[in-house]
Amino acid sequence: MAFELPPLPYPADALEPHMSAQTFSFHHGKHHKAYVDNLNKLIAGTDLENKPLEEIIRRTANEPAKVGVFNNGAQVWNHTFYWQCMKPGGGGQPTGELSGLIDQAFGGYQGFVEQFKGTSVGRFGSGWGWLVLENGGLKVVSTQNADNPLTRNQVPLLTVDVWEHAYYLDYQNRRPDFVQAFLDHMVNWDFVAENLRQGR
Ligand code: MN3
Are 196 and 157 contacting, i.e. CB atoms less than 8 angstroms apart? Predict the structure, then answer.
């Protein structure tokens, strides 16, 4: 069974004006689809064919001969996860257990915003900003290109794509404005809470 491009969890125009249908048409319809197609080509006829995506990512991480499989596989995983990290009418401060863990780790929601924004905006070149669970506590990290916290014993809870293709059509070079809009209007905290529950 080859991997398939998963459908978006909402209509392509559902996050407007913060993320446009045009961005989704390229980002989901072209970029994400290309990662899926490339991964299928690279694993066809190998011992990785028919393996779960997480296993492919873990087995090819830090393997120089498998860098193409890792990059495409991790990008398939990252994008599928990223779409679920957003929802129409999302963003703002989380409630419940997440709120307490954010207070513990960052001294409050504003502290979280500063770290998440600083780390994501500060990622040089292409990559991802993440909120992860590590040793029972929350942590903000960023990864380069396709890299992903699954290979670092961290549980991914939330991510923002800071490759230029993620925001250039809507925000041009203004990555800080994009990350701020992501936090204020797009984050799906229900999905983050579910990742926290499953990651424990
Ligand atoms: Mn992307």
Answer: yes
